[in-house]
């Protein structure tokens, strides 16, 4: 079943579209927290996003750009501001289509079906891991903390990846070093310590203090 996420602050419109798309067999949800949109996209893992232009806090152009930093999921804009300038802006920010409001539900359904048909020969669309306000971008080996992008070295990225793939579990230093060796990067015990300390410093500077916890006698973990 394809999953569709709506980012629409008019709850009457959101509920009407959800009810309509559910009748067509799509698992459809809408968000209510408009300050943390990207995190909700990652958690829901939609196959398609319907995005309004005018939203609380930040507009749809901003959120489309943020979504594009972590995902290639198709984004369809919905807006009453359907003039050429807004349509061009939507496409430039990474949108895949634009539907003018008031929305004709039959047109919407046809466009949704066409985009899903074109897009899925199924590939995993989300290239990110999210936890507690941090997003690890698997496509460019960076972390997004709030609105700040933190560049990681290859070893820092791989350490962060293994920890975020095992949230709440302590990973031994030996297991982390073995993971790094698999990628032709020989790391001894001292080098691992240096890499972890440098990674912690970057996360602290980005506002993620104590994100990596030391489990005495075992290794490291992310809670």
Describe this structure in words.
By secondary structure, the chain is of the alpha/beta class. The chain folds into two domains: 3-119, 3-Layer(aba) Sandwich (Rossmann fold); 128-222, Orthogonal Bundle (Arc Repressor Mutant, subunit A), CATH 1.10.10. The protein is built from eight helices and twelve strands. The chain has helices at 11-23, 37-44, 60-68, 84-92, 105-119, 154-164, 173-181, 189-205; strands spanning 3-7, 27-30, 48-52, 75-79, 97-100, 128-131, 134-137, 142-145, 148-151, 171-172, 212-215, 219-222. The strands form three sheets. It has a five-stranded parallel β-sheet, with helices on both faces. It has a four-stranded antiparallel β-sheet with strand order 6-7-8-9, sandwiched between helices. The chain has a three-stranded antiparallel β-sheet with strand order 10-12-11. Strand 4 (75-79), helix 4 (84-92) and strand 5 form a beta-alpha-beta unit. It is elongated. 30% of the residues are buried. This is Stage 0 sporulation protein A homolog.
CATH topology description of the largest domain: Rossmann fold
Give the overall silhouette. elongated
Helix content: 40-55%
Strand content: 15-25%
Q: What is the tally of helical segments?
A: 8
Number of domains: 2
Distance between the termini: 32 Å
Let me know the average pLDDT: 88
Class from secondary-structure proportions: alpha/beta
Secondary structure: number of strands: 12
CATH superfamily of the largest domain: Response regulator
- CATH architectural type of the largest domain: 3-Layer(aba) Sandwich
For the record, the CATH class of the largest domain is: Alpha Beta
Keywords: DNA-binding, Phosphoprotein, Transcription, Transcription regulation
Domain OmpR/PhoB-type: 126-223
Modified residues (4-aspartylphosphate): 52
Organism: Lachnoclostridium phytofermentans (strain ATCC 700394 / DSM 18823 / ISDg) (Clostridium phytofermentans)
């Amino acid at each position: 079943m394809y999953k569709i996420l709506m980012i629409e602050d008019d709850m009457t419109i959101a509920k009407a579209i959800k009810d309509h798309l559910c009748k067509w067999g799509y698992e459809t949800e809408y968000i209510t927290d408009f300050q943390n949109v990207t995190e909700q996209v990652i958690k829901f893992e939609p196959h398609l996003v319907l995005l309004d232009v005018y939203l609380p806090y930040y507009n749809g152009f901003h959120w489309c750009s943020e979504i594009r930093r972590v995902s290639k999921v198709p984004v369809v804009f919905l807006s009453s501001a359907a003039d050429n300038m807004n349509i061009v802006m939507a496409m430039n920010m990474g949108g895949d289509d634009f539907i003018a409001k008031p929305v004709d539900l039959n047109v919407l359904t046809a466009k949704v079906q066409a985009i899903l048909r074109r897009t899925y020969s199924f590939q995993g669309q989300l290239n990110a891991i999210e936890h507690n306000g941090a997003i690890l971008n698997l496509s460019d080996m960076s972390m997004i903390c709030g609105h700040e992008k933190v560049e990681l070295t290859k070893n820092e990225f791989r350490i962060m990846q293994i920890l975020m793939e095992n949230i709440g579990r302590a990973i031994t230093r030996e297991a982390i070093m073995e993971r790094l060796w698999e990628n032709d990067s020989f790391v001894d015990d001292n080098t691992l310590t240096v890499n972890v300390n440098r990674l912690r410093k970057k996360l602290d500077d980005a506002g993620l203090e104590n994100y990596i916890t030391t489990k005495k006698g075992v290794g490291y973990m992310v809670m």
